[in-house]
């Protein structure tokens, strides 16, 4: 019997992570790099860290590069995908992770508040999906993973714009799976629960403690939890999984609401 490579071996594959240097994004970027993928780390340019992360990965012997784009602009999304392909030769996995999560009560929310979040989270995911789907079709397939949220199903106070955008991402994921499946492109979503990217207990003790006390697994999530879910969905282990929303919340959404 001929030995087969490990199913989570991403050697020779190229992954583009939007918001790839942020809290969850950096965990995703590191995890795919460690699995052998060449990683294009996208940044909006508003937050530092992308160049430092790329240097860290390169120093560890991994392939990585960074690029800046405003994902609200379709032309910049197309240029970002082109940059990744020119740099690494192809594009196998797109992870739509970049997003905005400001707080604003619905009664006080302006049209501009709403549009900012929807444009970034939902329209940005749409723009990147369209930009990546063409090259993926040409090469025979690929995987698109959208970072949604448990708030796409369970709203939170002062998050109407965010929850609506994430619900839209879940349905966009299913539509993508429906329309691009014949071209070998799988599309799935990951819906994180409360993720501690560092310092959450100190910055939001009430929310942190409430989550810990109620979550069946009695902990918050970590960027690594989300990254491992993405790694699974991008791998051959999930070869027949498409159009799915994988909830990663420590069973919090399994709790009764009464």
Structure description:
By secondary structure, the chain is of the alpha/beta class. It has one domain (14-248): Rossmann fold, CATH 3.40.50.720. Helices cover 44% and strands 14% of the residues. The chain has helices at 23-34, 50-59, 74-88, 111-139, 160-180, 200-203, 205-214, 223-234, and strands at 14-17, 38-43, 64-68, 93-96, 142-147, 185-192, 245-248. The chain has a seven-stranded parallel β-sheet, with helices on both faces. Helix 1 links the parallel strand 1 (14-17) and strand 2. Helix 3 runs parallel beside helix 4. The longest helix has 29 residues, at 111-139.
For this entry, give a set of tags.
single chain, 258 residues, alpha/beta, Rossmann fold, 8 helices, globular
Question: What does this entry show, briefly?
Answer:
With about 260 residues, the protein is of the alpha/beta class.
Number of domains: 1
* Biggest sheet statistics: 7 strands, parallel
Q: Judging from the principal axes of the Cα atoms, what is the shape? A: globular
Q: Count the strands? A: 7
Rg from Cα = 18 Å
Beta content = 5-15%
What value does the average pLDDT take? 94
| Unreliable spans | none
- The number of distinct helices, counting runs of at least 4 residues, comes to 8
User: Structural class, please?
Assistant: alpha/beta
Strand order in the largest sheet: 3-2-1-4-5-6-7
CATH topology descriptor: Rossmann fold
Instruction: Report the span from N to C terminus.
Output: 55 Å
In the CATH hierarchy, what is the class?
Alpha Beta
CATH A-level architecture: 3-Layer(aba) Sandwich
Could you name the CATH homologous superfamily?
Answer: NAD(P)-binding Rossmann-like Domain
Order of helices and strands: EHEHEHEHEHEHHHE
């Amino acid at each position: 019997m001929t030995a087969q490579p490990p199913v989570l071996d991403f050697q020779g594959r190229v992954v583009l992570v939007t918001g790839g240097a942020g809290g969850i994004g950096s965990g995703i970027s590191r995890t795919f790099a460690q699995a052998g993928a060449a990683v294009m780390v996208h940044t909006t340019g508003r937050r530092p860290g992308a160049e430092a992360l790329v240097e860290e990965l390169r120093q560890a012997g991994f392939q990585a590069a960074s690029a800046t784009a405003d994902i609200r602009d379709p032309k910049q999304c197309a240029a970002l995908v082109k940059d990744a392909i020119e740099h690494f030769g192809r594009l196998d996995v797109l992870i739509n992770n970049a997003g905005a999560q400001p707080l604003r009560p619905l009664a006080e929310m302006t049209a501009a508040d709403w549009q900012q979040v929807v444009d970034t989270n939902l329209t940005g995911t749409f723009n990147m999906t369209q930009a990546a789907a063409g090259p993926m079709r040409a090469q025979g397939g690929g995987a698109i993973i959208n970072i949604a949220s448990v708030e796409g199903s369970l709203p939170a106070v002062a998050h109407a714009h965010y929850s609506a955008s994430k619900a839209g991402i879940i349905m966009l994921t299913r539509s993508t799976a429906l329309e691009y499946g014949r071209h070998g492109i799988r599309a799935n979503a990951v819906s994180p629960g409360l993720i501690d990217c560092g310092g959450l207990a100190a910055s939001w003790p009430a929310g942190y403690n409430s989550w810990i006390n109620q979550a069946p697994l009695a902990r918050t999530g970590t960027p690594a939890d989300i990254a491992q879910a993405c790694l699974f969905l991008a791998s051959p282990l999930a070869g027949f999984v498409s159009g799915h929303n994988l909830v990663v919340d420590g069973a919090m959404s399994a709790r009764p609401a009464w």
